[in-house]
Amino acid sequence: MIINWQYWTAFLLATICCFFLHELSQTRRRKGLPPGPRGLPILGNLHELGKNPHQDLCKLAQKHGPIMHMRFGNVPTIVVSSAEAAEKFLKTYDHVFAGRPYHEGSWYISYEGRSLVFSPYGPYWRKMRQLCNLHLLTRNRISSFEPMRRKEVGLFIESLKRAASDGVDVDLTTAMWSLGANMSCLMIFGKKYLDKDFEDKRFSDAVREALHLSAQPNIGDYFPLLRSLDLQGFTRRFKRIAKIYDDLLEKIIDDHLKSPGREEANDFVDILMDLMESGKFEFEFDRRHVKALLLEMLITSMDSTMATIDWAITELLRHPDIMKKLQREIEGKVGMGRIVEESDLEGLMYLDMVVKESMRLHPVGTLGLPHESIEDCTVDGFHIQKNTRLIINIWAIGRDPSVWPDPESFIPERFVGSNVDLRGQDFQLIPFGSGRRSCPGLALALTDVRFVLAQLVHCFDWKLSDNIQHSDLDMSEAFGIVTTRAQHLRVVPIYRLQK
Ligand code: HEM
After folding, report:
1. Cβ of 440 below 6 Å from ligand 1
2. Which residues of 104-140 are buried (b: 16+ CB within 10 A; e: fewer)?
């Protein structure tokens, strides 16, 4: 009995000592770090993140400040939530924070780190980025796909016209996703492969599953020692998805190689295979690199653009006066006798303002993609160690009341007479990020967003299904690598152009 008492006292004392030693070491380590919420032992701040982490981090930043230190499992993290702070990290110290953290899932779907998005900052990333900028996402290349876009958007509008003449409602969200998937597929593969079945799964669903899984917290990414246990089964699922992708990509490449008219590069497969065969690269560039890039272009382009349009059209439906004003602007340029062409988009100032305002409130990459410091540095007097993760809360920056008056309201007119643009120079509006790792697909995405949105607004008036009032439209978010509206948009189109 006495032994037991002594044993428990010793155990209690040891536990208390451990707790204080841990706290002491945390306090020492915190010296020089930015402020932030105190974490739990082991978990750190993981428990503070709910199903919409951008909103949780925004609330925490209101308490702790725009440069906040947190710890997710074993991973020290800086969360940035103001334009001024974002400029420091993405401009002044861009060279330090241009790294990307290792992400278990992406490793498998990127052919063991051969893609651009998740490759570490260095010569390999630089070459891949250059390749994209010079061969895939140039202005000329984007223009060369204009006939394809006109045809696909034309088919989409025709299907909406049929619904209009039948007076039935449509699931506009699903219709737009399928348009986005088709346009991405045609640009990248030259064919609409996404509705094909692979292992009982549609390929487009496999792409979406990867996007969904990538946004889920994976214990192995926060506790590297536990990685090999694959406690949530993520690695297993990513390996299975990677196999589905690989089978399809192999088939697509083989189809291209067998195709008789291959002399002319028409799509991304042709362009990348030509580059591979030319042997011009001074670094290794084989079929695995081609497949990694093809997949990456598909995953990054497929949903991001259409989710952006979904948010914008929903805001317009909530604000009929703004919808009318935009319709008048487009009618002024195009009339009512024909549909909008891409060449009409130039000079549609109000359309630009609507797109900016929608992307301010609803940047689909709410937290961007994580960056990582590649060396120690001091920012704003805070000491930040090498291998610290950096999260830019793009969503919070777009709603910062100290920069944006009445930030929660949708007011495109706030951009009248303002030079603020969304291309990464104005840090209060960075839906595509900024600096070295900013989005190389910006020009393509903006072309698609403006073109499809202009067509939807110009061709149709819209009635909401189920007697929903405009002001009651649900704007809740479903967080992901691409943050979409949680509810699909169901509407009845009413054709408004001359027959
Ligand atoms: C509205 C549509 C889009 C939005 C809002 C968007 C946004 C973003 C954001 C926020 C990032 C992260 C920037 C950072 O790390 O700081 C990013 C990266 C990237 N995006 Fe986009 N994006 C869009 C469309 C596209 C398209 C159409 C493509 C290609 C076809 C694309 C390709 C990429 C790539 C490859 C990266 C990684 C760049 C790197 O790590 O160097 N994106 N995008």
Report:
1. yes
2. bbbbbbbbebbbbbbbebeebbebbbebbeebbbeee
Answer whether 0.90 is exceeded by the pTM.
yes
pLDDT digits (tens, 9 = 90+) for 83-118: 999 999 999 999 999 999 988 878 888 899 899 998
Ligand 1 pocket mutation, candidates 271, 301, 434, 439, criterion most atoms within 8 A of CB: 439
Q: Residue 62 carries which side chain, given as an amino acid letter? A: Q
Distance 454 CA to ligand 1 centre (A): 22
Distance 439 CA to ligand 1 centre (A): 4
How do residues 37-81 score in pLDDT, each as one tens digit? Answer: 999 999 999 999 999 999 999 999 999 999 999 999 999 999 999
Note the pLDDT of residue 3. 46
Is 18 marked as binding a ligand?
no
Alpha-carbon distance of 33 to 377, in angstroms, equals 11
- Quick one: pLDDT at residue 263? 66
Alpha helices by DSSP H, listed for 31-70, are 53-64
Q: Please give the Cα distance from 69 to 77 (Å, whole number).
A: 6
Q: In what order do the strands lie in the sheet with 490-495?
A: 170-171, 490-495, 460-464
| DSSP letter, residue 37 | P
CA of 487 to the centre of ligand 1 (A): 24
Q: What is the CA(23)–ligand 1 centre distance, in A?
A: 40
Nearest CA to ligand 1 atom 1: 305
Question: How deeply is 280 buried, as exposed, middle or buried, from its count of CB atoms within 10 A (0-12, 13-18, 19+)?
Answer: exposed
What is each CA distance from 72 to 46, 90, 340, 390, 464, in whole angstroms? Answer: 5, 22, 48, 12, 42
pLDDT per residue as tens digits for the range 451-465: 999 999 999 999 998
Whole-angstrom distance between the N-terminal and C-terminal Cα of the chain? Answer: 95
Answer for the pair 226, 275: CB distance below 8 angstroms, yes or no: no
CA of 301 to the centre of ligand 1 (A): 8
Is the minimum distance from the CB of 370 to ligand 1 under 6 angstroms?
no
pLDDT tens digits along 348-406: 999 999 999 999 999 999 999 999 999 999 999 999 999 999 999 999 999 999 999 99
Report helix, strand or coil for 77.
Answer: strand
Question: In this structure, which residue's CA is closest to atom 34 in ligand 1?
Answer: 439
Orientation of helix 304-318 relative to helix 442-459, angle to 10°: 40
Q: Is the ipTM of this complex over 0.90?
A: yes
